[in-house]
Please model this.
Amino acid sequence: SIKAISQKDVIAFFDKYYRPNNAFLVLTGNLNLTTATKKVSHYLNTWQKKDIEHLPLPSPEPNAEEKVCFIELPQAKDCTIYLGNTILPAASPDFFPFLVLNQFLGGTPNSRLFMNLRESKGYAYFAFSEVEFYKSCGLFLAKAKVAPKTAYVSIQEILKEIRNVTKEKISTLEVEQAKSYLIGNFPLQIEKVNDFCSKISDIQTFNLGEEHWNRYYESVMLIDSEKVFEVAQRYPLLTPIIVIVGDRRVIVEELVDYEKVEVY
Model:
């Protein structure tokens, strides 16, 4: 697909979509509105508008059954595991409950994944989970770097921890610890100018509205164990795409328990 793209295609794409009525400009810093307006006008006054057809972007279908992919990396000393599926978009009402769920599952070294795979079992160098949110969908991802000989059992332990949060309500203590971390960490996410600009860009791009971040503290505080449990059951966390990266010669025995593996 990439080889088939010509210079003409790139120019046509740029001409069609790179227009002022299809862009957001975020300015942050030591300048007032008058100065900012003058600077923007000076540099961008010749940028012409153009009618753009905004086609709706459909949400990708979540993976419906477990799928295993192996990426061969010769001479790799360790094995890296990525495991995940598509979830809710940024504007979903489940946004904040899922933040809390991810936090106690794999958000810090005190989370379940880290404590299990590294501290308890000694399989992993690290084990975390994270979430990314977009306009049409989101992504839940668990990741770990493990000793090659523990790849299969590490994946099973990750799936076990995910299964636990879909089968049993978590304790109030875990929920409150996760909420405290999210609330305390949020100011650090907007401490730097570029990070603050990124949050403003998200509000505009994903049509979140200012209340989404203005009410961050209240939204997190309203989350309880019941809401987290409901969200954990609502999304296909147990039918992930599993990506294993390592040296085939070292890790081949760890793949035999899977019926089908796509090799790259």
